[in-house]
Every structure is written in C-alpha cells, then in structure tokens.
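Worked problem 6 (solution included).
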Amino acid sequence: MAAPSSEAERQRDKERTRADILAVATREFADKGYTGARVDEIAARTSTTKRMIYYYFGGKEQLYIAVLEHAYTAIRKLEAQLDVEHLEPEHALRRLAALTFDHHEANPDFIRLVSIENIHHAEHLSQSEILAGLADPALGGITRILERGRKAGLFRTDADPLDVHMIISSFCVFRLANRHTFQAIFGRDMLDAARRAHYRTMLGDLLIEYLTAR
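Solution. The predicted structure is:
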C-alpha cells in the first residue's frame, strides 16, 4: 500500500519543481530577454540545479518555449472558462474584453515575453507543440458572440473575430508595453489607478462602436 503513496508524492514533487522552475524562468526571461537570461541564474533562484533544469526541459531554448506556452495557456484557459453564453452579445463582449484587460494588467511579465518574442520574429513560439491550439479558445468565444449579435441584428455582418481579438489585444498590450514611454512623452501614466475604470470601459466602448457602426 505504501508504493502508490510514494509514487504520488514523487509526482507531486516533480510537478512542484517544474512549476517553481517555470515561475523563476518567466521572471528571468521577462526581465533580461531570451539572450540575456541565464540558466545558471534560474537554477540559483530555485530549489534545483542547472542539470535538473536540463533534465526537465532539455535546454535553454526548450525552457523558454515552455515559459511562452505556460504564459499563453494561462490566458487561453481563462478565456475558455468565461461563461458569457447567457449574456446579451454586447455585454458578453465587454466581459471578454474586461477579462483580457484584467489579466494583462495583473501579468506584466506576459506582456514583456510577448514583446521579446516579437523581437525574435516568433521563431521560438513557432516551434511550440501546442501552437495550433492557442488560437481556438481566443477566437471561438468571440465567433459565437458575433454570430449571436448578427442574428439579433446588433452587429455589422462583416465583423471578423480575429479583428475583434486584435482590437482587444492591442489596447491591453499597448497600455502595459508602452506605459513608460507614453508617460515620458505625454506625462500620463496609463496604469494610474484613478483612470483604470475609465480605460476598462473605454475598451468595451471601442468594441461596441466598431461592431455597431453601419
């Protein structure tokens, strides 16, 4: 009877170690980029060794890809879990936009990782084994909402789900990725708590104005 318990504990330890490595590696890559990040530093900041990191992930590039996969999977899971089928189409889209707004604000490392990977022309992300499944959760929900909105005569008939996703993503990413340069030039912090509700509402307004334009 002891063997299954021991095996289960070893599995939990393995999962905890892997999660710890991913958490530290996420910060390291987000702070220093793919080129500047060091596996030695990641190992030093975790309860494992460089050799163990290679055992779990295979190498620096594979670890970086795993970090990207973990980051993208987190937002995709949230999108997939969002229950908006019972809401009116306009309200449903506002909820979806608000989810992305909140997630990006709470996860600035995700924004930095996306920016870094774009510098590398997505050469690492394109190697991901889960790449094909990253689009469906994001676009599936939007597609269903748009279809309901069109059937109700609310939304324009030429609205494209990917365009809608782009509007949401561009607003939320810009607010984080360009915070410091925007503030330096215009003297406004886009993460000022006093303006948060305004920006969150504005994103929804932009979507609805576009989708209801005739």
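Discussion: The chain has ten helices and no strands.
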